[in-house]
Design goal:
The complex is a heterotrimer of chains A (about 300), B (about 350) and C (about 300).
Chain A: H1 14-26, H2 29-46, H3 48-51, H4 83-119, H5 121-135, H6 139-150, H7 154-181, H8 184-191, H9 196-232, H10 244-252, H11 259-287
Helix pairs in contact in A: 2-4, 2-11, 4-5, 4-7, 4-9, 4-11, 5-7, 6-7, 7-9, 8-9, 9-10, 9-11, 10-11
Chain B: H1 6-9, E1 19-32, E2 35-48, E3 52-56, H2 63-70, E4 79-88, E5 91-92, H3 98-104, E6 109-112, H4 116-119, H5 126-135, H6 143-159, H7 165-168, H8 178-189, E7 196-200, H9 208-225, E8 228-233, H10 236-242, E9 245-250, E10 253-259, H11 260-265, H12 270-278, H13 321-325, E11 331-333, E12 335-340
Parallel strand pairs in B: 3-8, 3-9, 6-7, 7-8
Antiparallel strand pairs in B: 1-2, 1-4, 4-5, 9-10, 10-12, 11-12
Chain C: H1 4-28, H2 33-39, H3 45-55, H4 61-73, H5 87-122, H6 127-140, H7 144-160, H8 172-206, H9 209-216, H10 221-258, H11 264-273, H12 277-305, H13 307-311
The chains are: A mainly alpha (about 300), B alpha/beta (about 350), C mainly alpha (about 300).
């Protein structure tokens, strides 16, 4: 018991601090993978016309269901359309509907949840009661119902899917608001005559922000899944517009002869979902590890 | 508590051959996001059969980690025992296989913890938890063995002064008071007649009157079973009441150790002196001293000062080079049994200028 | 149990009332009215009038609503617009298939998820944990309907399991052979989800003091995991069941389509494609009712599990 061991922690290497910074901003290697996938998908969705090798609607019935070749990397569908080009165009609908739906659900749900927690009383009772009833119906069934009644454009589908997640975000922003409502800094600014809207924006929302960002990210994966699901059921954006879900369904008919058709369509859906899941998980690790598990539905 | 008062319970110094627990050069580190941090560095001490050793220090001094290392209770990762030996009854614990270690836990060495509320499982009855401690070491217990275990649980509760033990065994922890819960913990710890009990801040979460009861029970248990006790605490008063010998820890190292009488009467490390001055003495009102807190805070274990870790807070330091250059080692001061890790131990003064602390007062 | 019954009933009645009203008014908000939607934009006014009369749509809304609620109170959901058969009969004919599928999917998801969750928690921050976490995140990103398609391609077409239909329960072997793949498709995603939640809850409990006490007692690590970590965590895990069931019923809609399986989901989708509004309306109401009943029953079960609630 004579000499003192040197503490490795006292000599942080330069490499470690770089790694730490990278970890802070990207979360983890998995999150970086998520950012990369999303970046590719977004670029493809923004300009499929420039990137896709063929017109997604150009038919060549004579060569229908041809397998992959140098000319058509993923082969041709039942009308002889290029599957790769249709997948690239399909990114547009999925990402647009997925992101629009999450945004709408966030914008409507969070203020409802904050208002319920902040005002209490009958406001809270009414909002949370409706939320509870809505949460007892699966989101996809609400979306189906809406689309069946009002038709399915990109906007209608986004609204349809958003409806199912408004109660989720209301519920998730409600309980933290309740506890922040009791904290000194909120009580203090109310005592000093702060207006309700100002207090909510200034003191409550900033505390919810990171959790809502994480859950929003994870939910984007779910909304994309539901969008593709609606298209899969034939209730999505109408053909001949290319959608991943529609392609998965069409491909199922040829599962024995041309399995690749369905498989790549499904992989496209998977890639978008996994990107948002990876990013959401990465954000959770850096911003707020105590964020509740993703909402499903 | 009078007929069980300490003088009778405290045996005379034991011969060294009766050492039951030997900790030698134990070093435990934690791998954290900020790098590897040593929680315990080069810690050594002995515990003899039937004696009580107090381990004292501020929070973060490594006193709990050193005790948990002994039973392999450090979560790994992030924790890691880098070096050292822990001999329990002559057997090496470090590096023991899971199964062997399990046979030591609760049988040779058991442990009680700070907060008896959180230390008991809320979803099982206290009886079930005591029975589990017994049957956990029996392979394929027969019905008769199970019945005996239940019977023993009741007896154990009775022995630690739980009233109506037949009913208590069927209750859940939240139905008991704090003192009762700690008694249950003691009963559970004693269920396999261990030879060493590690009590990690056993009364910190309890109020003062309950504290005294729990300490009395521990003394009674020691007297009737001859068990050794390692008492981990930050309370010098408890050490004075309970311990035969004391190990003072600071920043993961042992800074002073020795018999309680020696250390309390003639502390040989300025940190010990600081601790003694900062606790309210139980001396009669006329001799009560002012409490003098130690200035400053314990150092960040990830960034220990060079040389003596205590130097920045030390009343003796006086900017001497040696304190910041050369890490002090633990070596005999006054007697071979009294060790100090201070370069200038001989300069450490008495606690009270006008008298000595009354060690025997309760 | 009897104490919970009135509360369950109140919740059931309220939810059904709200859902039914929302669907009722939703259907009548359709641009051009249900008759136009049903017959198409170029339908003749005579046909539209005929449909309107059949549905009682020309009467004031409040009268229609009153009649609708009156019907509902007697347990009737009206007649199908397409087949003119009672909606309740069609639903009751397929409901067992959906329930069977949801229960089997839930069983797979709960058992698989708890096992995987306990396993990864036991190896926290070591290789099996990382592998398990990557696996569950990956599985979670697969839509259940895609897993269904993959199962048909990878398993059914090779092993020779049926890829469509559902036999009645009176033919258990055939029934099982048609149930197993759809249930797996539902259960795999559930497994991933339950595993993640279980792992999180287990890690929280494993950090608690009483687990350290259990270890200090020298009982086996397996027993520590099961009795001292999983059991206290079982209540929140079980309460996940209610939420999980809702998701399952939603996913069942898609899985039933993938496997061309008769059930509430296919019934609903077919009715939507045929614009059979009373059928859609009835199916949504039944879904809500089933979910409320299942969730209330689960709540009763939780109360029986947890001594802290039971004793009080």
């Amino acid at each position: 018991m004579t000499t003192i061991e040197s503490h490795p922690s006292r000599t942080p290497t330069r490499r470690r601090s770089v790694a730490r910074a990278a970890r802070k901003y990207c979360g983890s290697p998995m999150a970086v993978a998520g950012y990369c996938i999303l970046l590719i998908l977004v670029v493809v969705a923004l300009m499929p016309g420039q990137l896709a090798p063929y017109d997604p609607h150009a038919q060549n019935v004579a060569r229908a269901l041809e397998g992959p070749s140098g000319e058509h990397l993923l082969g041709l569908d039942q009308y002889g359309r290029d599957i790769l080009s249709r997948l690239m165009h399909g990114a547009r609908v999925s990402l647009a509907v997925g992101l629009l739906a999450v945004s709408m659900a966030l914008v409507v749900g969070i203020p409802l949840g904050i208002a319920a927690g902040y005002f209490g009383g009958w406001v809270e009772t009414a909002i949370m009661w409706v939320v509870d009833v809505m949460l007892s119906i699966p989101g996809i069934i609400l979306a189906l119902l809406f689309v069946a009644l009002f038709g399915s454009g990109v906007v209608n589908m986004s609204i349809a899917i958003a409806i199912g997640f408004v109660p989720t975000f209301a519920r998730l922003s409600h309980s933290p608001t309740l506890s922040y409502r009791q904290r000194e800094f909120v009580q203090g600014s109310i005592a000093f005559g702060g207006r309700s809207l100002w207090v909510m924006r200034r003191h409550i929302w900033p505390n919810l922000r990171s959790q809502m960002l994480i859950i929003g990210c994870l939910t984007a994966g779910t909304t994309i899944r539901i969008e593709a699901g609606l298209s899969f059921l034939g209730l999505g954006v109408a053909p001949p517009t290319a959608t991943w879900g529609g392609m998965l369904r069409d491909g199922m008919l040829y599962l024995q002869s041309v399995p690749l058709y369905s498989i790549v369509a499904g992989l496209a859906i998977f890639s978008a979902i996994v990107a948002f899941n990876l990013i959401g998980d990465g954000l959770r690790d850096i911003l707020d590890p105590r964020t509740p598990e993703r909402p499903v539905g | 508590m009078t007929e069980l008062a300490r003088p009778a319970a405290r045996p005379a110094a034991m011969p060294a051959s009766d050492v039951f627990l030997q900790v030698r050069n134990l070093t435990t580190v934690f791998d954290t996001a900020r790098g590897t941090v040593a929680a315990v560095t080069d810690v050594s001490y002995d515990v003899r059969a039937g004696e009580t050793v107090g381990i004292v220090g501020e929070s973060g001094s490594g006193k709990s980690v050193s005790a948990m290392s002994m039973l392999g209770l450090i979560p790994q990762p992030p924790g890691r025992i880098v070096s050292g030996e822990v001999l329990v009854g002559g057997r090496e614990i470090i590096g023991m296989g899971r199964r062997e270690l399990r046979a030591v836990r609760g049988v040779d060495v058991s442990m009680i913890f700070q907060d008896p509320m959180t230390s008991l499982n809320p979803v099982h009855t206290v009886g079930a938890q005591i029975v589990e401690a017994i049957l956990g070491h029996v392979r394929r217990p027969s019905r008769a063995v199970r019945r005996q275990a239940r019977q023993r649980a009741v007896e154990l509760l009775e022995a630690v002064g739980v009233s109506a033990p037949h009913e208590r065994v069927h209750q859940y922890p939240h139905q008991l008071s704090g003192g009762m819960r700690q008694r249950v913990m003691i009963a559970m710890a004693m269920s396999n007649n261990p030879r060493l009990l590690i009590a990690d801040e056993p009364t910190t979460a309890l109020d003062v009157t309950i504290q005294a009861q729990i300490m009395r029970i521990l003394r009674e248990v020691q007297q009737s079973t001859g068990i050794s006790i390692v008492l981990i605490t930050h309370d010098m008063g408890l050490i004075a009441q309970m311990a035969h010998r004391v190990v003072v820890m600071y920043a993961g190292r042992v800074v002073e150790s020795g018999a309680v009488e020696d250390v309390f009467l003639r502390p040989r490390h300025p940190y010990t002196l600081g601790l003694l001055r900062s606790f309210p003495s139980n001396a009669p009102a006329g001799r009560r001293q002012r409490m003098l807190p130690i200035p400053g805070l314990p150092p960040d274990p990830a960034a220990l000062p060079p040389g003596c870790s205590f130097a920045p807070r030390c009343s003796l330091w006086a900017e001497r080079q040696r304190c910041t250059d050369e890490p002090p080692t633990l070596r005999p001061a006054d007697t071979d049994e009294h060790l100090s890790a201070c370069h200038f131990w001989s300069e450490v003064g008495p606690i009270h200028a006008e008298g000595e602390v009354d060690v025997s007062s309760h | 149990m009897p104490r919970y019954l009135p509360r369950l009933l109140v919740r059931l009645v309220l939810t059904v009332f709200v859902v039914a009203s929302a669907v009722f008014f939703g259907v009548r908000m359709v641009p051009g009215g249900p008759a136009t939607a049903l017959l198409g934009a170029d339908a003749s006014p005579v046909d539209i009038a005929a449909v309107n009369e059949k549905l009682g749509l020309e009467e004031p809304l409040i009268v229609q609503y009153g009649r609708f609620l009156g019907q509902l109170a007697t347990g009737s959901l009206g007649n199908s617009l397409v087949s003119d058969r009672p909606v309740t009969a069609s639903i009751m004919a397929v409901l067992p298939h959906t329930l069977e599928l949801a229960i089997a999917g839930m069983a797979i998801g709960m058992v698989g998820g708890v096992l995987l969750g306990v396993f990864t928690a036991a190896y926290r921050n070591r290789a099996p944990d990382y592998i398990g976490r990557v696996l569950s995140l990956t599985l979670l990103s697969f839509p259940s309907y895609y897993i269904g398609v993959l199962l048909i391609f990878l398993v059914a077409l090779r092993v020779g399991l049926p890829t469509s239909g559902a036999a009645p329960l009176s033919d258990p072997l055939q029934n099982l052979s048609q149930l197993i793949l759809p249930a797996l498709a539902l259960g795999i995603v559930g497994t991933a989800y339950v595993a993640r939640v279980t792992r999180g809850l287990m890690l929280e409990v494993l950090d608690e003091d009483h687990v350290r006490t259990a270890r200090a007692k020298g009982i086996s690590e397996f027993r520590v995991l099961i009795r001292h970590a999983l059991q206290p965590a079982s209540l929140p895990i079980a309460s996940l069941g209610g939420l999980f069931f809702i998701v399952l019923i939603g996913d069942a809609v898609l899985i039933e389509t993938v496997f061309a399986r008769p059930g509430l989901g296919t019934l609903m989708v077919d009715a939507m494609l045929a614009r059979d509004y009373t059928m859609v309306q009835g199916a949504v109401i039944v879904v809500a009712a089933v979910i409320v009943v299942v969730n209330s029953l689960l709540e009763i079960v939780y109360r029986l599990i947890d001594p802290r609630i039971r004793v009080k």
